Amino acid sequence: MLNRSISRWEMVLLFINGVIGAGIFGLPSKIFKEIGVSSIAALVICACAVFVIVMCFAEVSSRFVKTGGPYVYALAAFGKLPAFLAGWLLLLTRFITYAALVNLLVTYLSVFSDWFTLPSSRIISILCISSFLAWINHIGVKNSTRVSNFFTIAKVLTLLLFIMVGIFYIEPANFEIKQTPGFASFSSTVLLLIFAFGGFESVLVNTGEVKNPAKSLPFALLLATLFIALIYILILVVSIGTLPSLASSDKPLAEAAGLFMGKTGAMIIATGALLSVTGTLNSIMMVGSRLPFAFSEEKQFPQVFSYIHPGYKTPTWSLVLFAAVTILISVSNTFIYAATISAITRVMTYGIVCISLVILRKKNAGQTGFFKIPFGNYFAIAGILIAVWLLTASKLRELRDIAIALGVGLVIYALVELHKKYKISRSRINRL
After folding, report:
1. Residue 298 phi/psi, 5° resolution?
2. Which residues contact 228 (CB under 8 A, 6 or more apart)?
3. Cα–Cα distance list, 325 to 287, 321, 322, 411 (Å)
4. φ, ψ for residue 54 (rounded to 5)?
5. Is the C or the N end of the chain the one with fewer CB within 10 Å?
6. For the range 37-40, what are the long-range contacts, defined as Cβ-Cβ under 8 Å and sequence gap of 24 or more?
7. CB 27 within 8 A of CB 339
8. DSSP string, 359-370
9. Phi, psi values for residue 249, rounded to 5°
10. DSSP for 169-210?
């Protein structure tokens, strides 16, 4: 049994650190362009929706000692093929999230030099950044973790500086509501904001190690969600209140800081954004590269991806695969499109977990020793309905691209299964 050593306040900090990422440096302009000042309300609604889903994740994850996240949950609830699809969705989310953020990183680099605005420079930058992060992760997890800790501190300090200075320069006139957004636009904005709240699923894998989970988890998750929502709302309010051209900005926080802190302020915020995004990219590379390895270990991917480097003890070919695919996706997508696709795949995964909660409650009715949500089935149903609502806000092009990606996954699954059957048949023939 796992040692329950994580306190409620440690869980709060883990959750905040896991969720506050790099997307907030690019999203304010995108959501403001979509629905204007109503984007603040969309952010509040998104935070409430995320809290419901988080509670479902908390109960499901606390039922398992084995790590693996949604893949493990789906395997216990549905079986092998649905589990593979859940894991494949998780892998797609890592790919696409990386693509979105590396494009955002290059955009913020343009604060320092116009060279980064050139199409060829963007491709070169993505290649260099991704290769460097792949190398960092190849030489060892310990080094990668140290890098992530440094970037985390830089991220939080930058956002707090932006809020504490910018709040004194807000122009109330910028909050004039010119028109009420339609339901479709509002829904699509909430969907996109899911991108900013992603990351909690990896934190909740540790719920089996939380002290007194029945009391600590609701406290930690509610407090952390409220804090994150407050930080995001303040960032959005400062962005709207200080940057009249917010809707057309590619690097809203840096441009807003440039107005109320001057060129030096813009450089500071841009530097913080670069460090934050780089840290998140490093984390995605570290975690995401382990997914092909995990699939291979479960014999659902070619065995070459379970190879471990004898010196560095890292999954070499799994890392190479992840880096190569993310580079291809990154150079062929923009920040906003990749962020939207990432949000959709996340919502699909969240829906699977919420359904898993209902099934696991029935299958393991006698199980004890985990965090159980009061009125858990109602939370699960609410989470499922939220997922359905947000998926209906998706555009046909986005759903088409995800369907193609899922189709690729199913082909890989089928080929691996056929190969395993072939090996079994050959083995039987050889024994005869």
Report:
1. -85, 5
2. 15, 16, 19, 20, 47, 197
3. 15, 6, 5, 17
4. -60, -45
5. C
6. 37/175, 37/176, 37/177, 37/240, 38/177, 38/180, 38/181, 38/186, 38/189, 39/189, 39/236, 39/240, 40/233, 40/236, 40/237, 40/240
7. yes
8. HHHHHTTT--SS
9. -90, 135
10. G--GGGG----PPPHHHHHHHHHHHHHHHTTHHHHGGGGGGB
Residues of the chain with pLDDT under 50: 1-2, 144
What is the model's pLDDT at position 3? Answer: 57
Give the model's pLDDT for residue 72: 84
CA distance readout (Å), 37 to 175, 177, 182: 6, 6, 13
The domain ranges of the chain are 8-396
Inter-residue contact 54 to 225 (CB < 8 Å): yes
Angstrom distance (rounded) from CA 143 to CA 138: 9
Q: 343-364: b or e for each residue (b if 16 or more CB lie within 10 Å)?
A: bbbbbbbbbbbbbbbbbbbeee
Provide the pLDDT for residue 391. Answer: 95
pLDDT for 291 equals 78
Amino acid identity, position 208: G
Q: Residues 356, 74: contact at Cβ < 8 Å?
A: yes
Residue 375 CB partners (closer than 8 Å, separation 6+): none
What is the C-alpha to C-alpha distance for residues 72 and 79, in angstroms, rounded to an integer?
A: 10
Name the amino acid, one letter, at 119: P
**Backbone dihedral angles phi then psi of residue 395, each to the nearest 5 degrees:** -90, 160
Residue 181 φ then ψ, to 5°: -70, 155
Model confidence, pTM: 0.88
Identity of the residue numbered 68? G
Planar angle of CA 326, 331, 337, nearest 5 degrees: 85
CATH topology of domain 8-396: Amino acid/polyamine transporter I (1.20.1740)
Rounded distance, CA 158 to CA 160, Å? 6
Q: Residue 170 corresponds to which tokens in the numbers above? A: 């807000």
